[in-house]
Amino acid sequence: MQPTEQSEHLDEKDLELYLKAQLSDASISAIDAHLGRCQQCVDELAEQDRCLAYLAELGAEENPGGAEKWVYPRVATDEPASLQILNPFSAGK
Ligand SMILES: [Zn+2]
Known about the structure:
By secondary structure, this protein is mostly helical. It has helices spanning 12-19, 25-35, 39-62, 80-85. Helix 1 (12-19) crosses helix 3 (39-62). Bound molecules: zinc ion. Zinc ion (ZN) binds next to helix 3.
């Protein structure tokens, strides 16, 4: 367990909302200010951006209504193939 001294870093959820433009102007300004002095969070934001774009692409092609509907419900969750699908960062897209 780590001490809480890194609490000033941006939350993954905040970054997601930031990318989706679902934050108030004040929150966006605070995040912009943090991104201006923290490369670590800039990298995190870039990863989130890729992830969201990837998921949006999947959703648009396969399932416009949302991600809760599985195309292959009988695929076992512990199969390596499904692990790759669940990990967009290694998909190279
Ligand atoms: Zn940070």
